[in-house]
From TrEMBL:
Keywords: Transferase
GO biological process annotation, one example: deoxyribonucleoside monophosphate catabolic process
One function term, GO molecular function aspect: transferase activity
Originating organism: Acetobacter senegalensis
InterPro entries referenced in this protein's UniProt entry, alphabetically: 2'-dNMP_N-hydrolase, Nucleoside_deoxyribTrfase
Recorded superkingdom: Bacteria
Protein name, as recorded: Nucleoside 2-deoxyribosyltransferase
Pfam families, per the entry: Nuc_deoxyrib_tr (PF05014)
Length: 210
């Protein structure tokens, strides 16, 4: 039995699978997991059969089933909540995965290289993509000020890095959101946070220095 097999399996979710350097990232992340007694599981693990299949509906749905199966096997998860495709919001598939793990009451932690508030992300996106600023809607009867985008949709989740359901589910599962300029640094902090949830703070201190 390998060293990692003795540790709790942790699903490594995020938009990482779409990045050109995905395999190198997952290799580094798995090593970071081992350092805190976790067994990192990439969405690519156990999906060798997919590489030989033609792109299309059936292959895409198979990937969704395989990813769900991996999450079922894992005791916890680490999620990247970086903005996706130059927009304010994160990868929607990852958001679904966060909800799925939350429904199973599994511990989670998150990480990102973008520490701007969600409000700032939305504002920047509309200014850069549509050259349209947010508009302020002042309350008529003493309520709080609301900000609207160019489609008159309310900009929500004040004080958070992402949608309140995304960040809220991670925090309700006990985890924090690690922020750093470098993704590996952010991931290591999140992995340490998650290991603390699983092993307890005192046990994790010994693991990280052992």
């Amino acid at each position: 039995m390998t060293e990692s097999a003795a540790y709790p399996k942790v699903y490594l979710g995020g938009d990482l699978v779409f990045r050109k350097d995905a395999q190198q990232l997952f290799k580094a992340f798995k090593e970071a997991c081992l350092a805190v007694r976790l067994h990192g599981v990439s969405p690519f693990d156990g999906q060798d059969e997919v590489e030989a299949l033609p792109p299309g509906k059936e292959t895409s749905l198979l990937i969704a089933r395989l990813d769900r199966g991996l999450m079922d096997e894992c005791a916890a998860a680490l999620f990247c909540i970086d903005p996706f495709r130059r927009a304010a919001d994160m990868d929607p598939g990852t958001a679904v995965e966060i909800g799925y793990m939350a429904a199973q009451n599994k511990p989670m932690a998150g990480y990102t290289v973008d520490g701007r508030s969600y409000h700032q992300k939305v504002q920047s996106y509309f200014e850069q993509a549509w050259h349209t600023p947010l508009t302020e809607e002042k309350p008529q009867t003493g309520g709080r000020v609301r900000w609207l985008d160019a489609d008159a949709m309310i900009v929500h989740s004040e004080g958070l890095l992402q949608n309140a359901m995304v960040e809220g589910f991670i925090r309700q599962a006990g985890g924090d959101i690690a922020v750093a300029d470098d993704i590996l640094t952010a991931f290591r902090a999140a992995a340490s946070d998650l290991a603390g949830l699983i092993y307890g703070a005192s046990g994790q201190e010994g693991a990280s220095h052992g």
